[in-house]
Specification:
Radius of gyration: 11 Å
Helix content: 25-40%
Strand order of the largest sheet: 2-1-3-4
Number of helices: 3
Number of strands: 4
Length: 81
């Protein structure tokens, strides 16, 4: 699985680096370092959303925040694998 976290201007201001750190932490905690590739993306085209945009393979999810991160990670990573 490929995960791209937007680090463009808008998402950067909304906390994309906190989301990247949470991704790293949860990938390691769930022993997914061989299964999941985490990368940064400069724009996923969803700048008007309230939170950070994250692309899971071919699906872009908007509005990712530290508060809803665990729910989104479970749905789009754990349940998808």
């Amino acid at each position: 699985m490929n995960i791209y976290v937007c680090v463009g201007s808008s998402c950067h201001l909304k906390g994309s680096y906190a989301i990247i750190e949470l991704m790293k932490e949860h990938i390691a905690k769930n022993n997914l370092t061989e299964t999941v590739k985490l990368s940064a993306a400069f724009c996923l085209g969803k700048c008007a959303s309230e939170g950070v945009s994250v692309k899971f393979d071919d699906e872009v999810v908007t509005g990712v925040t530290p508060e809803n991160f665990k729910q989104i990670f479970t749905k789009y990573v754990i349940e998808a694998l």
